[in-house]
C-alpha cells in the first residue's frame, strides 16, 4: 500500500468513527520530534512528525543545524583552499568531493591531467565510494537491528582509511590531491594495504550479503519501505544510487565521463521499486563494480610511465619544498600560488562527479580575481532531504528511520 | 509446619534468589562477551581476570550515578515501575523444580520452593504482572518515546501471551497436569516434551523471545527508533533495575523452556552411572543449569544475528501465524490422543 492510499484509509477510518458516534470529532494526533539529536538520525536533522499512533500522518523537516555557509566562505578563499571545505560536505567520502572540486577548477583553468594521475584519482574515488556505501549499508543493518553486520564490514572501512592516511596523512577530512593532479605518488605501503584490502573486501562483503540479502526479516523490513517512483525521483532531481534504485540508469561516470572513466568497463546497477531494499542492493552491486574498476585501474597504471602524478602546471601546482629553497623559479611560483598572484582565467563552469550518494556538482564563476566570484555546490543530500517528508508520509516510524539511513543523508552535505 | 521445614524453605528461597541474581549479573557480562565473540572483538576485559569483575564495576557505577527524575513525571509511579519489574522477575523462580530432592537424616528436601498445582498459571500470572512495570515506567516518564515503547511492549506481550498460552495448552493436554514439578518429573530419560510437542516447543520459544523483549522482538527499547524505549528517562539504578529485570526474565525463560520441553533436570542414561540419590539430584541440578546456560547463549546468539521486526509485522506474526499454528497444534495433539477412538469410528 503506498502512502497516499494509507492516508486516505486513515481518513476514512476517522470519518467512519465519527459517524458512528453521531458527531463530527476531530481525531487527535501526537507531535513527535525526531531529532535534532536522535540516535538514528546520524547527524543533526530535525523532523517534526505528526503521528497517529505509530503511523506518520504528516512530517516537516528542518534544515540548517550545521549550516556553515561554505558557499560564502568559498568566495573569500583561494581555489586550492576551498578543497578543505569540500572535505566537510559528505564526510563519508571526502576524497570524491576533493577530486570533484579539483576537476572543476582544472576545467576552469584548462589543465590537462596526465593519464597516470587520472587513474590514481579513479582508485581513490572508487575506494571512497566503497567506504561510503559500506557505511550506508551497514547502517541500514544497524537501523534494522542487526548490529553485528556493521562490525563485519566496518573493519574494511578502517583499511580504506589506512590507505588514505598513507596517501595524504589524514583519514576523514582528507584534503587529498591538488589542482593539477595528486600531491604525491602512492607509497609502497599504500599499494600493499590496497592489495590486502582487495583480498579482504570480497570475503567480508559476501559474509555481509549472506547475513542480510535473503534474510526474511530484513527483506520484510526493507522491501516497500520508503519507496519512490522513478518519475517522482526525477522530478525531485534525485541522482546517484537513490535514483538508480528507482530504475533510472543515470550515472555521471557513464553519462558524462571524467577522469578517464570512459576507458573503464563497469555495470550500472538499476533497481525497480526505489525502496530501501533496492537502494541497499544497488549500493551492494556498486561496491562490487568499484572493486572491478580499481582492479582495471591498477592494470592500466602499469602501462603508464612511472612517477608522474601531476600535470606540468607550475602556476597552480606547488613545487617541491627543496626546490623552493634552492631554485629561484620554484620560489617565485611558490610565492605566487600561496599569495594568490597567479592569473586566473575568467569564466563560468559546472563540473559534476558521481559522489558517494549522487551527483555532486560544482558551479564556479570566476571574474579573474584570486578567489571565485561565486561557488555553488550541488549537494545531492539537500535534494533527497526535500523528498524525505513526502516519502515517509503514511509509513511507520521504523520505516521513516530506515528510509533516512538508506538515502544516506549526511548532515554535512545537507547543510553545507 | 515445623521450624526445620521453615528454615529449609528460607534457605532454599535465599539460595534461589542469590543464584538468580548472580546469573542475571553474569548474563550482562556474558552478553557482552558473546557479542564480542560474534562481532570479532574482545568485549570487556579490563576489570579483573578476563573482565570477570565487570558486572560488579557496573553495579557500583549504576549505584553511584546521579539520579534524575524528570520534573514532569509522576514520581510515585516513576519509582514503582522498575521496582515492579524487578520484583515480578524474581518471583517466577518459586515454582521451578531445580532438581529432584535431597535427603538428609531421613528427611526429604525437595529442590522446588513451592510445588503449586497450578504452577504454569502462576508463571503466566507473574509474567503478565511484569508487563505493568514496563507500562507504568513508560507512562510515568511523560516522554513520547517512553510512551511509544510502553505501548509497544504491552501490545506485544499481550499478543504473544495468547500464542504462548495456546502452545502450553497442548502441552497440558499431553502431560495432564498444571504442576511444573510433575511436568519435569514426567520427562524422565528420553521422554522430553520437545519430542512429543515439537511445534508447541517452537511456538513457545518464539513467544519467549517476545515476552522477554529480546531481539528480534526488542521493539519496546530499540535504540534506533525510540532512543531508549520505555527506559529513556531512567538513570542510575532504576535503569539498572530494568536491565536487570530483563536479564532475570531471560534466565527464567531459559529455565522454563528447559523445564517444560527439554527435560528439566532429567538427563538420559545418568542413572546408570550415578546411583546415590543425593548425587543424582545434584547432577540433575547441574544438567538443568547446563541447559539453562545453553538457552541463555541461544538468546544472545539470536540477538546478535537477526534484525528486528517492524511493529505491524510483529503483530502479524503473533496473530496470523503463531496463534493459528498453536491452535492447529492443539487440534493435532487432540487427534493424536484420540486416535484409537477416531480409528474406531472409521473402521466401523
Essential attributes:
heterodimer, A: 416 residues, mainly alpha, Cytochrome-c3 Hydrogenase, chain B, three-stranded antiparallel sheet, B: 348 residues, 14 helices, 69% helix
Describe this structure in words.
- The complex is a heterodimer of chains A (416) and B (348).
- Chain A is mainly alpha-helical and 416 residues long.
- Chain A has a single domain, classed as Cytochrome-c3 Hydrogenase, chain B (Orthogonal Bundle), CATH 1.10.645.
- Chain A is built from 17 helices and six strands.
- Chain A has helices spanning 3-21, 70-74, 79-87, 94-109, 115-144, 148-168, 188-212, 216-222, 230-235, 240-245, 252-255, 276-303, 321-326, 328-339, 380-392, 397-406, 411-415; strands at 30-34, 46-52, 55-62, 347-355, 358-366, 374-378.
- In chain A, the strands form two sheets. A three-stranded antiparallel β-sheet of chain A has the order 1-2-3. Chain A has a three-stranded antiparallel β-sheet with strand order 4-5-6.
- Chain A is globular.
- In chain A, 48% of the residues are buried.
- The model of chain A has no long low-confidence stretch (mean pLDDT 86).
- By secondary structure, chain B is mostly helical.
- Chain B has one domain (62-347).
- In chain B, strands 1-2 form a two-stranded antiparallel sheet.
- In chain B, a hairpin with a 2-residue loop joins strand 1 (101-104) and strand 2.
- In chain B, helix 4 (119-140) packs antiparallel against helix 5 (144-175), helix 5 (144-175) packs parallel to helix 13 (311-337) and helix 8 runs antiparallel to helix 13 (311-337).
- Chain B is globular.
- At the A-B interface, helix 5, helix 6, helix 8 and helix 16 of A face helix 5, helix 9 and helix 13 of B.
Amino acid at each position: 500500500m503506498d502512502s497516499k492510499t494509507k492516508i486516505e484509509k486513515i481518513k476514512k477510518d476517522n470519518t467512519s468513527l465519527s459517524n458512528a458516534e453521531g458527531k463530527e470529532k476531530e481525531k487527535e494526533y501526537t507531535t513527535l520530534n525526531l531529532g535534532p539529536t536522535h540516535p538514528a538520525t546520524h547527524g543533526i536533522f530535525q523532523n517534526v512528525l505528526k503521528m497517529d499512533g505509530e503511523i506518520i500522518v504528516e512530517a516537516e523537516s528542518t534544515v540548517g543545524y550545521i549550516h556553515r555557509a561554505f558557499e560564502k566562505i568559498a568566495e573569500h578563499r583561494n581555489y586550492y583552499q576551498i578543497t578543505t571545505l569540500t572535505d566537510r560536505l559528505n564526510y563519508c567520502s571526502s576524497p570524491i568531493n576533493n577530486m570533484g572540486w579539483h576537476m572543476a577548477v582544472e576545467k576552469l583553468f584548462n589543465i590537462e591531467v596526465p593519464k597516470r594521475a587520472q587513474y590514481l584519482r579513479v582508485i581513490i574515488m572508487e575506494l571512497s565510494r566503497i567506504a561510503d556505501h559500506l557505511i550506508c549499508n551497514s547502517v541500514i543493518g544497524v537501523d534494522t537491528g542487526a548490529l553485528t553486520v556493521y562490525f563485519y564490514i566496518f573493519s574494511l572501512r578502517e583499511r580504506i582509511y589506512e590507505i588514505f592516511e598513507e596517501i595524504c596523512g589524514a583519514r576523514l577530512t582528507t584534503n587529498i590531491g591538488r589542482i593539477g593532479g595528486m600531491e604525491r605518488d602512492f607509497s609502497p605501503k599504500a599499494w600493499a594495504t590496497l592489495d590486502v584490502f582487495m583480498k579482504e573486501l570480497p570475503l567480508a562483503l559476501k559474509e555481509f550479503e549472506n547475513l542480510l540479502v535473503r534474510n526474511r526479516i530484513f527483506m520484510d523490513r526493507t522491501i516497500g519501505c520508503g519507496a519512490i517512483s522513478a518519475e517522482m525521483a526525477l522530478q525531485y532531481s534525485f541522482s546517484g544510487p537513490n535514483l538508480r534504485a528507482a530504475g533510472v540508469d543515470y550515472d555521471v561516470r557513464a553519462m558524462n565521463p571524467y577522469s578517464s572513466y570512459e576507458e573503464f568497463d563497469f555495470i550500472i546497477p538499476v533497481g525497480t521499486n526505489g525502496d530501501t531494499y533496492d537502494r541497499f542492493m544497488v549500493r551492494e552491486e556498486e561496491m562490487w563494480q568499484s572493486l572491478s574498476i580499481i582492479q582495471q585501474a591498477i592494470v592500466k597504471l602499469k602501462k603508464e610511465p612511472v612517477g608522474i602524478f601531476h600535470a606540468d602546471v607550475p602556476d597552480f601546482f606547488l613545487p617541491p619544498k627543496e626546490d623552493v629553497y634552492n631554485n629561484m623559479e620554484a620560489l617565485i611560483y611558490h610565492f605566487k600560488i600561496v599569495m594568490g598572484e597567479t592569473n586566473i582565467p575568467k569564466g563560468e563552469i559546472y563540473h559534476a562527479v558521481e559522489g558517494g550518494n549522487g551527483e555532486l556538482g560544482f558551479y564556479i564563476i570566476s571574474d579573474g580575481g584570486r578567489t571565485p566570484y561565486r561557488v555553488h555546490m550541488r549537494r545531492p543530500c539537500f535534494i533527497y532531504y526535500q523528498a524525505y517528508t513526502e516519502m515517509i508520509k503514511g509509513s511507520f516510524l521504523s520505516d521513516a528511520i530506515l528510509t533516512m539511513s538508506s538515502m544516506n543523508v549526511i548532515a554535512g552535505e545537507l547543510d553545507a | 509446619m515445623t521450624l526445620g521445614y521453615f528454615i529449609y524453605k528460607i534457605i532454599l528461597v535465599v539460595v534461589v534468589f542469590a543464584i538468580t541474581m548472580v546469573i542475571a549479573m553474569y548474563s550482562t557480562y556474558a552478553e557482552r562477551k558473546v557479542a564480542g565473540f560474534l562481532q570479532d572483538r574482545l568485549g570487556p576485559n579490563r576489570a579483573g581476570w578476563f573482565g570477570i569483575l565487570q558486572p560488579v564495576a557496573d553495579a557500583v557505577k549504576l549505584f553511584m550515578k546521579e539520579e534524575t527524575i524528570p520534573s514532569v513525571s509522576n514520581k510515585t509511579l516513576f519509582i514503582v515501575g522498575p521496582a515492579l519489574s524487578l520484583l515480578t522477575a524474581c518471583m517466577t523462580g518459586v515454582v521451578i523444580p531445580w532438581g529432584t530432592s535431597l535427603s538428609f537424616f531421613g528427611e526429604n528436601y525437595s529442590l522446588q520452593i513451592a510445588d503449586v498445582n497450578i504452577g504454569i498459571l502462576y508463571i503466566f500470572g507473574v509474567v503478565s504482572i511484569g508487563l505493568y512495570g514496563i507500562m507504568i515506567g513508560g507512562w510515568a516518564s511523560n516522554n513520547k518515546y517512553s510512551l511509544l515503547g510502553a505501548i509497544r511492549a504491552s501490545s506485544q506481550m499481550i499478543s504473544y501471551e495468547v500464542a504462548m498460552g495456546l502452545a502450553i495448552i497442548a502441552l497440558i493436554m499431553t502431560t495432564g497436569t498444571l504442576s511444573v514439578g510433575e511436568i519435569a518429573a514426567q520427562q524422565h530419560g528420553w521422554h522430553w516434551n520437545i519430542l512429543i510437542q515439537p511445534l508447541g516447543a517452537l511456538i513457545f520459544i518464539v513467544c519467549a523471545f517476545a515476552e522477554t523483549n529480546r531481539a528480534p522482538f526488542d521493539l519496546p527499547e530499540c535504540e534506533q527508533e525510540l532512543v531508549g524505549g520505555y527506559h529513556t528517562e531512567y538513570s542510575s539504578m532504576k535503569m539498572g533495575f530494568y536491565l536487570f529485570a530483563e536479564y532475570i526474565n531471560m534466565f527464567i525463560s531459559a529455565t522454563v523452556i528447559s523445564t517444560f520441553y527439554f527435560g528439566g533436570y532429567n538427563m538420559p542414561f545418568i542413572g546408570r552411572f550415578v546411583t546415590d540419590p543425593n548425587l543424582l539430584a545434584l547432577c540433575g541440578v547441574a544438567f538443568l543449569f547446563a541447559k539453562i546456560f545453553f538457552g541463555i547463549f541461544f538468546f544472545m546468539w539470536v540477538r546478535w544475528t537477526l534484525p528486528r521486526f517492524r511493529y505491524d509485522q510483529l503483530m502479524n506474526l503473533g496473530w496470523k501465524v503463531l496463534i493459528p499454528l498453536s491452535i492447529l497444534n492443539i487440534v493435532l495433539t487432540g487427534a493424536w490422543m484420540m486416535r484409537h477412538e477416531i480409528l474406531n469410528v472409521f473402521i466401523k
